[in-house]
C-alpha cells in the first residue's frame, strides 16, 4: 500500500476530539474499579473507542504500508480465528467473560476489544505458482504465494506523534491529551501480553498504529514468544533494546541470545512512551545517568506522572524494573486515567473546546 496518509491539522483536530469524547465516556463508565486484563477483554469500557458519527470518514486512504488489508465487514466474515489464537496463546473464550457476563459475537469482535492487530487469514493468489522468482533493487530472490490478511489501519504511532508535535500553541492541550491517550492505551496493551505469559520482543513506535475510529492497536506479532525463550535481538532494534539485550548481543561468548522477559517489554514500553512525549528515544547508551532529571533535561513539558512512570519502566536493573501489569496499579497511571477522562469532556465533536481554560486538566 502507499505511504501513511498525510492529514491536515483541522481534520486531525476533529479526529482527536471525536476519539476523546467517546474515550471519556468509556473511562467514566469504568469508574473507580481497577480491572485486571482478563476483565478488560470483554469490556468495551476498557479499550474501545468508537466512531463519533461520520467525522473520521474524511480519511479515505488506508496507510498500512506493505500489508494486505480488507474492510471490517470482510474481516467479520472470515473463517478461522485470530493469529494469536492459531499460534496457541491462551486467550479466554470470546463467547462469555466469567467476570462481567458480557459476550462478543465473533472472534473479530473479540479482537476489537483486545486491540491486537493480527492477521486473521492466509490466502494465495489464484493461478500463480506457490513459489516464484522475483527481482528487487538488483537482488534476486524467491517469493512465496502466501499473503496474510489484516484489517486496515490509518496511521502509525510515530507519524501521528510527529503530526501533533507541529500543532500551534493554542492547540497544545489537545496534543497533550492525545499523548496521554497513547500512553494509557500502550500500557494496557503490553499488560495484556504479560497477563497471557508472552513477550512481544519488538515494542517500538512503528509496532503501534491507529485505526480510523481512533483506537490504538498493537501489531508485529512475528516476534512474539513465551516468557523465558531465548532470542537474538536484531541490531536495528538497539535504540529500544534494554541493557541486558545489548550486553547479550555484544558478548563474545554464547549465541548472543537474550532471555525474553516481561522486563524486556517493560523497558521497550517505557522507551516508546518517552518518544510519545519527547519525539525521540531516551538516551540510554553507556555512561548515561539513571535519573528523571537526566532523561528529561531536553524535554521539559512532560507531566510529572509520565516522567515517573517512564523512569520506573526503564530502570537498568531487571529485578527492580516496573512491569506493565504493575504499572496499571501505580498512582501515576491512575492519575493519567483521571486526567484523560477530564480532557475528553472538554472537546466537542468538531474539535472545539467546550470548557474554558480554567477547566483544563493539569497536564
UniProtKB/TrEMBL annotation:
GO terms for molecular function: ATP binding; protein kinase activity. Residues 59-333 form the Protein kinase domain. The keyword Ion transport does not apply. Residues 1-33 form the signal peptide. It comes from the Eukaryota. This is Rhoptry protein ROP4. InterPro entries: Kinase-like_dom_ROP, Kinase-like_dom_sf, Prot_kinase_dom. The lineage of its organism: Eukaryota, Sar, Alveolata, Apicomplexa, Conoidasida. It holds the Pfam family Kinase-like.
